[in-house]
Amino acid sequence: MGGTSTRNRNPRRRTQPLSWRQLSLLGVASTIGTGYFLGSGIAIRMAGPSVLLSFLWAALGAYLVFVALSRMTAAEPLEGSFRAYSKKAFGPWAGFLSGWVYGMSELLISGSQMTALSLFARFWFPGVPLWMFASGFAALGMFTVWLGTRGFERVEHTLAVLKLAAILLFIALAAAALLRWFPGGPSPRSLGRSYFPPFPEGFPGWWSSLLFAFYAFGGIEVMGLMALRLKNPEEAPKSGNVMLLSLALLYAASLLLALRMVPWQILNARKSPFIIALEPLDLPFIPHLFNGVLIAAGFSTMTASLFAVTNMLAVLAKDRDAPPIFARQYKGRPYPALAFTTLAVGGSIALSLLLPGRVYESFTAAAGLMLLYNWMFILASSLKLVRWRGFRRGMPYAGMALIAGAIAGTSVHAASRPGLWISMGYLVFLAAFAAIVIRLRKRRAGSRSGDEKPDGVNPEIPSEAEQRNAGYDRYRRKQPFGEQLPEYAGERRHGDIPNNDTEDNAPAVLEEIPEIGLQGRFGDDGSVDAQPEQNGQRA
Predict the structure, then answer these.
(1) Within 450-495, where are the H helices?
(2) How far is C-alpha 523 from the geometric centre of its chain's CA atoms?
(3) Interacting residues of 443 by C-beta distance below 8 A, sequence separation 6+
(4) Which of 14, 141, 328, 391 has its CA 20 to 30 A from that of 358?
(5) Which strand (E) or helix (H) includes residue 442?
(6) What's the CA gap between 298 and 116, in Å, rounded?
(7) Cα separations in angstroms, 225 against 276, 312, 366
(8) Would you say 137 and 117 are in contact if contact means Cβ atoms under 8 Å apart?
């Protein structure tokens, strides 16, 4: 769990930068998936018409999380996004937990998505075994990730447009049906029959539905990972605001129309509520059309999950939170990380096909909960890294309260409760493992230097060579030869991330670290002298 070094800063991007509109479209692609097209049916069964409040709750929570993430990204874009901010705010253990919690949750979710895709595909080919479809979708998804960032973006942009078009088509067809534009169509149901009573399953039913409403907004983390490529990082908040506002309006409109067209009691988790709502129209192309949309939506979010896992694994390896081999690239592609993700996906598929249905559902629920834990990390990091002003000071606390409410709601639902215990157990295991690794590294570092590093000395100071390669001394805002740099860009633009490096601590720190790489000196003004010593003489 190495320090956040200058390797995490990537001001010069090799690939073509993104506009804020392109990032918004990527957010749509990584968010709208089976969690909405299928998961909304589960939420409706639990909460009835009050599911609209559940989605409002989740939309507000997702918005507050993205505000925090985008403020940190705009001020200081870092490779690894939320994982890097957790580490910067709380130390190595937080970066380790955030990265591995996110990676494991995305792996489990991708396995469940492949299983769902296989079930959708059997609508057209009922005789083909599930494992063949799952393997095919996995291979296609990994090929998309192998194409690289540009290929991934092209595929996701195309599928995002398709998913948005499908939701708009449903809204148009449902509105036309309610206006009696279809001969023989269903009669509009009264408002009282459609939306009352609002809490048919009581408060516990509505409370337990919050988790599934949050599922429909899962994927905003991918926007954080991709925000490093924005042309102007200051536009990160704009891209998220547009994306989340659009999704909230589309979700609300489609759910309102679905509940108006058919009784909520007939909706179930085995079939999309939007297909069920359009069945009375007796349009033969509807089931086939929306089955194709479900496959496209599931494949899009599955590919986004695989891309995020591969990216996160490489970032963890660069910081020594994962085996260093996963950071290696050959011809610009991280083949070791791709190979590990492929093997892990194969194991996830096997679990989904071999484990009893109830057991695997518990693992899937645990994966969704771990995503929410990661959102809590984002909000907590912003409390330390962002200088919130005025009423905005309460935004991170409000977001944590909304997410905590959804997590607590799983304790009152029998199907979700095992997932809560599984996710908590995984957190405890990771925390214990991180503590052991940190202790071993400190002991190893102490044995190399002859004694333990004293308290108060940062063990993660990058070497003089890294400072010189980056072109500045990040502890003193000076060039290696003592020239004062301009005001810190993040503070000048935003004033969000405070500068706590008020002391000239470079000499004291470097004295405590025996292996710096290049043995330099300090100039008369205290700056790092880039000229090394050779045989006791100044070079």
Answers:
(1) 464-470, 489-493
(2) 45
(3) 452
(4) 141
(5) helix 417-449
(6) 8
(7) 36, 9, 22
(8) yes
Can you state the percent helix, strand and coil of the chain, rounding each to 5? 70, 5, 30
389 token code pair: 């002003």
Q: 252 exposed, middle or buried (CB, 10 Å; 0-12, 13-18, 19+)?
A: middle
* Tokens 């214990």 belong to residue: 432
Say how many C-beta atoms besides its own lie within 10 A of residue 491's C-beta: 15
Which residue, among 282, 297, 340, 296, has the nearest Cα to 316 in the 3D structure?
A: 340
Kindly give the pairing relationship between strand 537-538 and strand 528-529.
unpaired
- Tally of helices (H runs) and strands (E runs) in the chain: 21, 4
Question: How far is Cα 118 from Cα 104, in angstroms, rounded to an integer?
Answer: 22
- Its pTM stands at 0.75
Q: Which two tokens stand for residue 513?
A: 């670290």
Strands 537-538 and 533-534: antiparallel
Q: Which residue has the tokens 């891309």?
A: 307
The token duo for 301 is: 């979010």
pLDDT per position in the chain (539 positions), as tens?
444 444 444 444 455 688 888 888 888 888 888 788 888 888 888 888 999 999 999 999 999 999 999 888 888 888 888 899 999 999 888 999 999 999 888 888 887 788 788 888 888 998 888 888 888 999 999 999 888 878 888 888 888 888 888 899 999 988 888 888 877 666 666 555 666 677 888 889 899 999 989 988 888 887 777 777 788 888 888 888 888 888 899 999 999 998 888 888 888 777 888 888 888 887 888 888 888 988 998 898 889 889 888 988 998 998 888 888 998 888 778 889 999 998 988 887 787 777 766 666 777 788 889 999 999 999 999 999 998 988 888 999 999 999 999 999 999 888 788 889 999 999 999 989 888 888 887 887 776 655 444 444 344 444 444 444 444 444 444 433 334 444 434 444 444 444 444 444 555 544 554 444 444 444 444 334 444 444 444 43
Give CA–CA dist 309/221, Å, rounded. Answer: 11
Residue 54 CB burial class (10 angstroms; 0-12, 13-18, ≥19)? buried
Pairing of strands 528-529, 521-522: antiparallel
As a whole number of angstroms, the distance between CA 409 and CA 425 comes to 18
- Work out the number of other CB atoms within 10 angstroms of the CB of residue 197: 11
SS3 176: helix
How many residues in the chain? 539
CB 167 within 8 A of CB 290: no
Question: Between vectors from CA 229 to CA 226 and to CA 231, what angle results, nearest 5°?
Answer: 135
Compute the distance between CA of residue 427 and CA of residue 345 in angstroms, rounded to an integer. Answer: 21
CB distance 500 to 492 below 8 Å: no
